[in-house]
Design a protein that fits this description.
Chain A: Keywords: Iron, Iron-sulfur, Metal-binding, Pyridoxal phosphate, Transferase. The complex is a heterodimer. Chain A is α/β, with parallel strands linked by helices. Chain A folds into two domains: 241 residues, Type I PLP-dependent aspartate aminotransferase-like (Major domain) (Aspartate Aminotransferase, domain 2, 3-Layer(aba) Sandwich); 128 residues, Aspartate Aminotransferase, domain 1 (Alpha-Beta Complex), CATH 3.90.1150.10. Chain A is 37% helix and 13% strand. In chain A, helix 4 runs antiparallel to helix 11 and helix 6 runs parallel beside helix 11. The longest helix of chain A has 21 residues. The radius of gyration of chain A is 27 Å and the shape is globular. The relative contact order of chain A is 0.12. By secondary structure, chain B is mostly helical. Chain B has one domain. Chain B has three helices and no strands. Chain B is elongated. The chains are: A alpha/beta, B mainly alpha. Chains A and B meet through helix 1, strand 3, helix 4 and helix 16 of A and helix 2 and helix 3 of B.
C-alpha cells in the first residue's frame, strides 16, 4: 500500500499538477438575476468561467471528497473494487460461458421437443449436464431436478415434503441460522397448521446433536439443516445428523448452496434425502439451480409448479438448455478442481486471517476448525461497522447487517451466535474464491489494518479500553 | 496419424492466450492454473500424457475464444491492477464504448 502511494506521489512531482475544475467551474446564472431582480449571486464573467484543462496524466481520486485524503492517482489506475463477496455470488467462469454460448446462438431447440434434431441435441446436452451435477454429489442421474435456483429448491423441498406427508407428520425441525428462504417457508407452513422447532446453535455456530435428538418427536416429518452457512461458513456435522434422521425415519433436507463444489459431498454417505444446489455460487450462471430428490428410498413431494409434467412431474416448465448446461459445466469443473481450489482458497484464507487477527480485539465468528476457509467473518471491536465499510470502498465486501435487510438490524445469524449488537454491526464477511489472487489479499490486509487503526484512533471508547477501563462498568450519564 | 503436440509449445501458447484476457481475475487464474497443471503432470508418460496434452489443446481453443470475448466486453481496471508494482505499462488497449460508465 505504501509503495502504491509513493509511486503516485513521485508522479505528482514529475508531471505538472493542474487540478481539475473545482476552481474554474462556471457558476450557473441565478434565475432571479435573469428575471431582473437583484441577488447575491452574480454570474461569473465569461473570461473566468472556463473549466481548466485536466492534465491527462493525473486525476484526483473520486474518493478524495469522502475520505478526506487528497490521494492523487495516476490516470490508468483502476477504480473498480476488489471482489471479496464470494458468498453473495461468484463470477461466471469463462469455461462455463463457453459451454453456454452455443445454446444462445445455433442450438436453440426446446429440449422437450421429441420430434426433431433441434430438440434431440438440446435434450442430450441437458441430460449430460444432469449427469455432471449428479456425479459431483454422488447421486443417481435421475434424482436431479433442475430449478430456477436454490430458493426455489428449498421452497419445493420443504413445502413439498411437508404437504405430501401432512396427514401423519406435522412437525418440522430446522435451525435459527438457516437461509431466509428456508425460514420463510417454515413460517408459511406454520401458518398452515404445521409445528416448527427452530434449534439454537452453540456459540461456534454448530448445532448440538443432543438437542436435535431431544427435539425429535414421533410426528416429525422433515429436518432441514444447511451444510455450510453463508454468513459464517461453519460446516455442520452432516454424517451424524444424517445417521440420526435415518434411524428415526425422518427426511433430511439440506441447503448445500454454499457447499457444493467446495467440500466433498456424498449424499449416500450423509444419508441426505433432499439437497438444494445453486448455480451462481459455484461459478455458474445466475437463475439456475437444482435439487436432489432421492429415489431409493423414494421421497415423494407435492410439486410447487404445475404444468406439462417435465422433470418427473416435480417441476414443470421448459428448461433453458443454456442455463442448465452452464450449471453442468460448472459442476464438472468443480469436481475436477475441488482439491486444487480448496488448497488455493485455504492458503489465501490463512494469509488473510493471520494478517487481520494480528490486530487486537478481532474476533472470528464461527468455529475455526469446522468451517469452510473461503468464508471468513471477523468482528472488529470498537469500530463502527458502517464507517468501516465506507472506508473499505476499494473492496467489495458484505457486513453483518446489510446482508439480510435494508434496515440497520444486525444479522440474525450473528445474533444467534450470541454476539452483542455492537460486535454484530462491526463484523465483515470476506469471501475468497477460485479467482481471488495473492495481490488482492495483500492489498486487503494492508487496507483493513490501516483503516481499522485509523477509525480506532478516532474512537473515545478505544481510548478508554487502552487505558484499561472496563466499558461495562461505566455509568453513562443520562441527558 | 494424430498430430503430435509438443508440451513446450502448448505451454507457451496457453500462457500467451492467458495473458490476453482483459479481466484481471481471469487472467491471473488462467496463468496460475496452466502453470500448476503442467507442473503436476510433468512426470506423466504414455497414454496419460497424450490425454493430458489433448486436454491442454482443447483448453487452448476455449481460452482463445473466451479471451476474445473478454476483450469485447471490458470493464474498468481493478484497484489492485498495476497498483503495487507501479504504473501499468499499457500494451492492453482499453475500449469502453459499451456498458456501465
Amino acid at each position: 500500500m505504501a509503495s502504491y502511494l509513493r509511486t503516485s506521489m513521485s508522479a505528482v512531482l514529475r508531471a505538472p499538477v493542474r487540478t481539475a475544475g473545482v476552481r474554474g467551474v462556471a457558476r450557473r446564472a441565478a434565475p432571479a438575476a435573469s428575471m431582473g431582480r437583484r441577488s447575491y449571486v452574480t454570474p461569473t464573467a465569461p473570461v473566468k468561467a472556463q473549466a481548466l484543462e485536466i492534465d491527462t496524466e493525473i486525476a484526483i481520486s473520486p474518493r478524495a471528497a469522502e475520505t478526506g485524503h487528497t490521494l492523487v492517482i495516476e490516470k490508468g489506475e483502476g477504480n473498480r473494487p476488489i471482489y471479496l463477496d464470494a458468498q453473495a455470488t461468484t463470477p461466471t467462469d469463462p469455461r462455463v460461458v463457453d459451454a453456454m454460448l452455443p445454446f444462445y446462438t445455433g442450438l436453440y431447440g426446446n429440449p422437450h421437443s421429441r420430434t426433431h434434431a433441434y430438440g434431440w441435441e438440446t435434450d442430450k446436452a441437458v441430460e449430460d449436464a444432469r449427469s455432471h451435477v449428479a456425479s459431483l454429489i454422488g447421486a443417481d442421474t435421475s434424482s436431479i431436478i433442475f430449478t430456477s435456483g436454490a430458493t426455489e429448491s428449498n421452497n419445493m423441498s420443504i413445502k413439498g415434503v411437508a404437504k405430501f406427508y401432512s396427514a401423519k407428520k406435522k412437525h418440522i425441525i430446522t435451525t435459527q441460522i438457516e437461509h431466509k428462504c428456508v425460514l420463510e417457508s417454515c413460517r408459511t407452513l406454520q401458518d398452515q397448521g404445521f409445528e416448527v422447532t427452530y434449534l439454537k446453535v452453540k456459540q461456534d455456530g454448530l448445532i448440538d446433536l443432543a438437542e436435535l435428538e431431544a427435539a425429535i418427536r414421533p410426528d416429525t416429518g422433515l429436518i432441514s439443516i444447511m451444510t455450510v452457512n453463508n454468513e459464517i461458513g461453519v460446516i455442520q456435522p452432516m454424517k451424524e445428523i444424517g445417521a440420526l434422521c435415518r434411524k428415526n425415519k425422518i427426511f433430511f433436507h439440506t441447503d448445500a448452496a454454499q457447499a457444493v463444489g467446495k467440500i466433498p459431498i456424498d449424499v449416500n454417505e450423509w444419508n441426505v434425502d433432499l439437497m438444494s444446489i445453486s448455480g451462481h455460487k459455484i461459478y455458474g450462471p445466475m437463475g439456475v439451480g437444482a435439487v436432489f430428490v432421492r429415489r431409493r428410498p423414494r421421497v415423494r413431494l407435492e410439486p410447487l409448479i404445475s404444468g406439462g409434467g417435465q422433470e418427473r412431474g416435480l417441476r414443470s416448465g421448459t428448461l433453458s438448455p443454456a442455463l442448465v448446461v452452464g450449471l453442468g459445466e460448472a459442476c464438472k469443473i468443480a469436481k475436477q478442481d475441488l482439491e486444487y481450489d480448496h488448497a488455493h482458497v485455504s492458503r489465501l484464507s490463512k494469509k488473510l486471517i493471520d494478517g487481520l487477527m494480528s490486530l487486537e480485539h478481532v474476533l472470528r465468528n464461527g468455529s475455526p476448525e469446522q468451517s469452510y476457509p473461503g468464508c471468513v467473518n471477523l468482528s472488529f471491536s470498537y469500530v463502527e461497522g458502517e464507517s468501516l465499510l465506507m472506508a473499505l470502498k476499494d473492496v467489495a465486501l458484505s457486513s453483518g447487517s446489510a446482508c439480510t435487510s435494508a434496515s440497520l438490524e444486525p444479522s440474525y445469524v450473528l445474533h444467534s451466535l450470541g454476539l452483542s449488537d455492537e460486535n454484530a454491526h462491526s463484523s465483515i464477511r470476506f469471501g475468497i474464491g477460485r479467482f481471488t489472487t495473492d495481490e488482492e489479499i495483500d492489498y486487503v490486509i494492508e487496507l483493513v489494518k490501516s483503516k481499522v487503526n485509523k477509525l480506532r484512533e478516532l474512537s473515545p471508547l478505544w481510548e478508554m479500553v487502552q487505558e484499561g477501563i472496563d466499558l461495562n462498568s461505566i455509568e453513562w450519564e443520562q441527558h | 496419424m494424430p498430430k503430435l503436440v509438443q508440451p513446450i509449445s502448448l505451454y507457451r501458447s496457453l500462457l500467451r492466450a492467458a495473458h490476453s484476457f482483459s479481466a484481471y481475475n481471469f487472467r491471473d487464474y488462467a496463468l496460475r492454473r496452466t502453470k500448476d497443471a503442467f507442473r503436476a503432470n510433468r512426470d506423466l508418460f504414455g497414454e496419460a500424457r497424450d490425454k493430458a496434452l489433448q486436454t491442454g489443446a482443447n483448453e487452448l481453443k476455449r481460452m482463445k475464444r473466451q479471451a476474445a470475448i473478454s476483450g469485447m466486453y471490458q470493464t474498468d481496471r481493478l484497484v489492485v491492477e498495476g497498483g503495487l508494482e507501479g504504473k501499468d505499462k499499457g500494451g492492453r488497449a482499453r475500449v469502453k464504448d459499451q456498458g456501465w460508465d
